[in-house]
Amino acid sequence: MGFCKNFLWGGATAANQFEGGWKEGGKGPSTSDMLMGGTHTVPRRITPEMEEGAYYPSHEAIDFYHRYKEDIKLFAEMGFKTFRMSIAWTRIFPNGDDKEPNEEGLVFYDHVFAELKKYNIEPLVTISHYEMPYQLTKKCNGWVGRECIDHYVRYCETIYKRYKDVVKYWLTFNEINAGTMPFGGYMSLGILNEGTTSFLDQVDIPQLRFQALHHQFVASAKAVQLGHSINPDFKIGCMIAYMTTYPYSCNPKDMLKMQKQDQIHNDLCGDVQVKGEYPYFSKKYFSSQNIEIKMEPEDEEVLKAGKVDFYSFSYYMSSCVTEDESVTKTEGNILAGVKNPYLKASDWGWQIDPEGLRYTLNRLYDRYQIPLMVVENGLGAVDEVKADGSIDDGYRIEYLKAHIQQMKLAVEDGVELWGYTPWGCIDLVSASTGEMKKRYGFIYVDKNNDGTGTLDRKKKKSFDWYRQVIASNGEDLAER
């Protein structure tokens, strides 16, 4: 027993990290366009206004805007069945509250989808991926303003109707559970509280953050209902940054701490979007944090009626939690933890745990009983271009191979898994640091952290390996 014959193999990207063309075709500034470049030790700074001469990585990114035909041809050469991409909200509504959509932006995605169709690649579209119109941040502090719901739904209606015959799979928000943490205040929710200087050093007001998250829940539910009314064949999913955690020890206190962390940072958002209601544990959590969610009378009914069709998630690593403050800490995707002595880690300190993916797939399917998709997974590493131009990223092959093997075992366990789109199938700008040095792709892009480079594309060793994986539907994982 292996992957189903129509399994969706592909790769994942985000407009703000690879599209570029930030002022072209009538596009307006997004929240990500206001983030300067940073490093692993220097956080990306948010500039309330654009600063002349400063470097903003998203402005050019890797220039998919002008090179989409070249890139999609490479994806097709690998045999992609699907391509996860996002639509830049500000290409369609430059200010967010515009009365009419921007036709030039719509035409750009017409061309992208036509190119994908040419190669029989199914688009998997994230409607909002860590960006929103910056004008809405200035006008209503992002999703804190309830009016954002109507602006988002109007945006959804526009793209649903425009692309209803070419896009079947949609995700309403990327890693929506980032909003449960201070990190997500600006990046995910567009909140810019006074005194905030970077998205990793935010002046956090939990009441505003969870109120904004509630508005996203309502917007997502309305988008699901609207999408199904426009095309009943649409499959609309949620997307969660799944943070797999283990208790560091068999101390019951560690177990309880892990459970509480799971509930708030993993389960709360999944429960609202899949089950259509806030989970029982949220009431006590909100009370303990002095958070009061202000709901309109119809909100609970909207959440019930707008449940998603499938659950998608990112999985990169796992971590441990403990009450013991003396245990060594480790880095992580969104949420860090303590070091697991049984695991190796990447150059960025992310602990590599393929078995954790099988565990996570089983946990999610047991909890929700709806189809799953792994829409982000990958290894960020420093790739070296050798004198002969080759790039031997065997470490990436080893990482992906181990995770695919565990996905297959999860399918054999009985999990219904629809697809797999490794993150950054082509090198792109890091969301957390704005760097190019941390690379994930099967395709190398000649660009440096400071924005210099030719932008030329080059195949890595993993390119041909992934092509054989797709061609064999995950049966041939051997490195040659």
Automatic annotation (TrEMBL):
InterPro entries per the record? GH, GH_1_N_CS, Glyco_hydro_1
Recorded GO MF terms: beta-glucosidase activity
Q: Name one GO biological process term.
A: carbohydrate catabolic process
Look up keyword Isomerase and say if it applies.
no
Top-rank taxon: Bacteria
Alphabetically sorted, this entry's keywords are: Glycosidase, Hydrolase
One Pfam family of this chain:
Glyco_hydro_1
- Kindly list the GO CC terms recorded for this protein: cytosol
Q: Name the PANTHER family for this protein.
A: 6-PHOSPHO-BETA-GLUCOSIDASE (PTHR10353:SF296), GLYCOSYL HYDROLASE (PTHR10353)
Protein family according to the UniProt entry:
Belongs to the glycosyl hydrolase 1 family.
Protein name, entry field: 6-phospho-beta-glucosidase
Which species is this record about? Answer: Anaeromicropila populeti
